[in-house]
Amino acid sequence: ILKDLLFSYFHLILYHNINSFSFDLKYDKMYKNEVNQMQRQKRMALINDITGFGRCSIAAMAPIVSAMKIQAVPIPTAILSTHTQFPIFYFDDYTSRMSDYIQTYKDLHLEFDAIATGFLGSKEQVDIVIDFIQTFKQEGVFVLVDPVMGDHGKLYTTYTPEMCAKMKQLVQYADLMTPNLTELVTLVDRPYPTTLPTFDELEEMCQQLSQQGPQHIVVTGIPFNEKQILNFIYNQGEDYQIVMVDRIGEDRCGTGDVISSVIAGSYLNGYSFYESVKRATLFASKCIDYCEKTQVPNYYGLCFEEYLYELGEE
Ligand code: PXL
Q1: What does DSSP assign to residue 87?
Q2: Whole-angstrom Cα distance, residue 166 to residue 174?
Q3: What SS3 class is residue 178?
Q4: Listed residue (281, 268, 95, 270) closest to 180, CA to CA
Q5: Ligand 1: residues within 6 Å at CB?
C-alpha cells in the first residue's frame, strides 16, 4: 500500500510539474498568437445572472451576441433555476466568487472589445463591476450599462437608496445606456412623471445623465399610446431620434436583455447607435409577436430562437 501511495504521490508531483510547464508554454504561444492575429473575433463580457429557465440575462444575451459572430464571455453575478417572476426559484448569489473568477482573466491578460452589464444585486457587485471595467476598458472598448433598477415607476425591492447611489457611480463608466423611464428619472433624481414627458423633457433628462458619462442613451419601452411604444434616442451633441414600435401584448420578462444585447452586438459590429436600437426593437417585436401568436406565457420570455439566424445576416 505504501509503495502504491508513494507511486501515486510521485506521479501527482510529476503530472503537476509537467502540466504547469506545458501550460506556461501553451499560454505564452496562445497569447502571442492572439496579439499577432490581425482579425481576432470580437469578444464581449456579459456581467449578469445565469437563469436556466425563462430566457433572460446571460441565457438570452450569449446566444444573441454569438449569432452576431461575437464571442460571449459570461461573468455570472448569480445562478438561478428560473427568474424571480416565477413563484419558486433556486437562487445562488455569486458575489463572493466573482473576484476569483475574474482574477483568472486578469492573469491571462484577456482582452475584451465590449462589456455589457445588467442586473446587479448588491453594492459589492457594483464595486466588482467597476474594478472589472477599470481593468479591461482599454482604448476602443465600449461599456453598455443596462441599469436594471425598476419598472412602471417602481424600483425593485433590492434597490435601497444606498444601491441607487452605487448605481449612479457606475454611470460614469458607461458609453451606452439603456434605461427605461423609471430608471432614467431615478438616475437623474426626478419623480416618476404622471403623464407622458415631452420630447424636450426627455432630452433634458438624457442630457443630464449623459453629462455623467454615456455618449449614447436609449430610453426604452415608453408607453406612448394604446398602440405604440416609444424608444427615445439621445446621442451626445446631436438631435434626438425616436423609434416607435407596435405595442403587442403585456410586458415580457427578458425583453430588456434581448434589446440590450442586440444593441451591444450591433454597435460592436459597426452599426450606428440609432441603427442598433432599430435592429434591437424590431427583433424584439418580431419575437414578441411570435410568442403572442403561439400563446407562450409572459414569464417564459421571448422566443428569440425563432429569429436568431436573422441576426447573423449582415
Ligand atoms: O431582466 C430580466 C431578469 C433577469 N434576471 C433575473 C430576473 C429577471 C426578471 O425578473 O428575475 C434573475
Answers
A1: S
A2: 14
A3: coil
A4: 281
A5: 49, 51, 56-57, 80, 83-85, 119, 148, 253-254, 256-257
Spatial distance between the Cα atoms of 276 and 200, rounded to a whole number of angstroms: 23
The conformational region for residue 69 under phi > 0 = left, psi -120 to 50 = alpha, else beta, is left
Q: Give the SS3 label for residue 190.
A: coil
Sequence-distant (6+) residues with CB within 8 A of 37 are: none
Q: Which of 119, 148, 299 to probe ligand 1 with, by most ligand atoms within 8 A of CB?
A: 119
CA of 142 to the centre of ligand 1 (A): 23
Query: To which residue does cell 461599456 refer?
Result: 143
DSSP assignment letter at 293: H
The DSSP line for 92-129 is EE-HHHHHHHHHHHHHTT---SEEEE----SHHHHHHH
Ranges 36-45, 140-149, 204-213: which has the least confidence:
36-45
Tens digits of residue pLDDT in 62-102: 999 999 999 999 999 999 999 988 999 999 999 999 999 99
